[in-house]
Amino acid sequence: MAWKNRSGAEMNSRNLVSRKLTIFLCISCFCAGMLFTNRMWIEPEAKDLSRPTGTEAEKLKLIAEDCNTKSSVRRDSKDIIGEVSKTHNAVQILDKTISNLEMELAAARAMQDSIVTGSPISDGLTLPEPVKKRKYLMVIGINTAFSSRKRRDSVRATWMPQGDKLKRLEEEKGIVMRFVIGHSATSGGILDRAIEAEEKKHGDFLRLEHIEGYLELSAKTKKYFTTALAIWDAEFYVKVDDDVHVNIGTLGATLSRYQSKPRVYVGCMKSGRVLAQKGVRYHEPEHWKFGEDGNKYFRHATGQLYAISKDLATYISINQHVLHKYANEDVSIGSWFIGLDVEHIDDRRLCCGTPPDCEWKAQAGNVCVASFDWSCSGICRSADRIKDVHKRCGEDETALWNASF
């Protein structure tokens, strides 16, 4: 019995120890489990909810702004295009201003060099005046000859304003128009006196220091641009023949589109064949300069009507003594610009045919700038036919006076 009692006591003691140990282990495991569980849950939570860094904040801001921007992209795209267009126009205006300043600087240097060296200078080349000149849109020089009195009268009776209207055209619209002619080989002869009488009556001539002659058209054109530049400060200088019909308002509106561009050469561009055969019309004595027989000229405007910007007229004025003259005036003009950074603008409204061509275009709302017959290099029998061309192809009488350039 005693043995059994001792054995039972020992068993009870062991059970008690095991039970306490078990409880302790359970509690320890529970605590360890709670600690491990808390760490597993707290750290990810802290990581997920932690305050974003500066870079992350910027990314989130950009994403938010991008989301807001997408809704207004279509609305803002037009504004962006408008701003780009304004910037492009501003760059062109700045480029033109720089070009004008460069030309004026070149003129001043040429004048200074001539004073220092005593070398001849271009006629009409002057230093910029202290008093600013009136600014004009364009000067239209109508090339004419001593024998073309009937042509001049037909132009005066159709598309060229007369008297007070001619002055009003200059003052209100900034458009100067003059018949351009030089002098006869016999100074003060009957031909010159006839022009002087005509000038006294109409007041619409620009006299050049130039001896008239068909083979001297290139020299005359060069002198015209130089003289016109010295007298009038204009955006454009236009040359037109006296057997061509012109709509002045349409011409002004056309050239106005190119005011912001520098070095502009506007006309009906062509590249005709170089004629080497003697005795034919438009024969080119220097055909060998253009390569083999049958070659074509470089790009240039047809001579009936074309316009150049002020900086190109200044270039001609400065360099007139070294600019080469070919037999054909329109080829000469093109050759002076071929090596320059010049924009050649080909506008076919400057070379429409006579009725029905220009008439159909006018009825369709596409009024021509100039009309003539290619077969005659002008209007055939222009003194007789230009009135009919004007009646059928002329712009509305109010188009010029209501135009805003």
Supply the key terms:
transferase; disordered N terminus; Spore Coat Polysaccharide Biosynthesis Protein SpsA, Chain A; alpha/beta; elongated; manganese; 9 strands; single chain; two-stranded antiparallel sheet; Hexosyltransferase; 405 residues
3D architecture notes:
It is an enzyme of class 2 (transferase). The chain is an alpha/beta fold. It has a domain at 135-402: Spore Coat Polysaccharide Biosynthesis Protein SpsA, Chain A. 51% of the residues lie in helices and 15% in strands. The strands form 2 sheets. Strands 3-2-1-4-7-6-8 form a 7-stranded mixed sheet, sandwiched between helices. The protein has a two-stranded antiparallel sheet with strand order 5-9. The longest helix is centred in the N-terminal third of the chain and has 47 residues, at 2-48. It is elongated, with a radius of gyration of 43 Å.
Question: SSE order, as H and E?
Answer: HHHEHHEHEHEEHEEHHEHEHH
- Gyration radius, to the nearest Å? 43 Å
What share of residues is helical?
40-55%
Q: What gross morphology would you assign?
A: elongated
Q: Whole-number average pLDDT? A: 81
Beta-strand share of residues: 5-15%
CATH fold call of the domain at 135-402: Spore Coat Polysaccharide Biosynthesis Protein SpsA, Chain A
Give the CATH architecture of the domain at 135-402. Answer: Alpha-Beta Complex
Strand order of the largest sheet: 3-2-1-4-7-6-8
Query: How many strand units?
Result: 9
Structural class: alpha/beta
Spell out the CATH superfamily of the domain at 135-402.
Spore Coat Polysaccharide Biosynthesis Protein SpsA, Chain A
Text of the CATH class of the domain at 135-402:
Alpha Beta
Which regions contain 5 or more consecutive residues with pLDDT less than 50?
1-9, 39-50, 114-131
**Tally of alpha and pi helices:** 13
Q: Sketch the major β-sheet.
A: 7 strands, mixed
Distance between the termini: 137 Å
